[in-house]
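Hi all, posting the design record for the shared folder.

TITLE: backbone redesign
STEP: 1 of 1
STRUCTURE INPUT:
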């Protein structure tokens, strides 16, 4: 299997734990990954500090890019990143992507992934949804993106918040085409 080049964008929706778990999971999958480029919005950092009580995103050994750094390789289709995961994805970022408003590196990278017909996974988070949100999810889906809501499952009988959140992150890992041991309904683990 060819090693993947992955973009992870973290935005200011609630659910920083999803980003943290994805980072932790990706660290265990280095045999399948050539590169991880990360971009965080300002609110993503604020929400992470608020919800997780730390700034540990700074400690991950990935390639971090400022949200306005259009010199990042994945701001252009020529860099050939395979997959972009937006986790969690705010309604604001979703709306900018749905309408092609590439005014920061996150929305530009998503625009590139869609135009190059590569894989965009948006872990959207809000509740309830307005018709604007639903229409934006429809638009991104029609453009080839995958809307993977931050809706955890409970049939693996989670005991901690992280075990709850991992059910979403495991689906994201599957969607990204990465191989990882995780809970499978009615399969031996
Ligand atoms: C604690 C906190 C939680 C938030 N949760 C959400 C959320 O779940 N979904 C959402 O769309 N926006 C949420 N927001 C609002 C976004 O952070 C805000 O709309 C921001 O402008 C999004 O910009 P970004 O996509 O560039 O991060 C939250 C903000 C704060 C401070």
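Okay, here is what came back for every position:
SEQUENCE:
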């Amino acid at each position: 299997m060819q090693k993947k080049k992955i973009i992870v964008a973290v935005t200011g929706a609630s659910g920083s734990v999803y980003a943290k778990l994805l980072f932790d999971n990706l660290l265990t999958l280095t045999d399948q990954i050539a590169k991880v480029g990360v971009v965080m919005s300002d609110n993503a950092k604020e929400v992470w500090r608020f919800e997780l009580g730390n700034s540990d995103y700074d400690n991950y050994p990935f390639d971090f890019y400022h949200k306005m750094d259009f010199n990042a390789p994945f701001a252009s289709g020529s860099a050939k990143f395979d997959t972009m995961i937006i986790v969690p994805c705010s309604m604001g970022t979703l709306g900018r992507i749905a309408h092609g408003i590439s005014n920061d590196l996150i929305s530009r990278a998503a625009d590139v992934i869609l135009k190059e017909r590569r894989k965009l996974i948006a872990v959207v988070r809000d509740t309830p949804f307005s018709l604007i949100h639903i229409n934006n999810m429809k638009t991104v889906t029609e453009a080839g993106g995958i809307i993977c809501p931050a809706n955890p499952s409970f049939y693996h009988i989670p005991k901690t918040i992280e075990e709850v959140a991992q059910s979403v992150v495991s689906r994201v890992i599957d969607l990204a085409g990465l191989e990882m041991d995780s809970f499978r309904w009615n399969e031996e683990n």
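COMMENT: Residues 4-175 form a domain with the Rossmann fold fold (CATH 3.40.50.1950).
Let me know if anyone wants the other runs.
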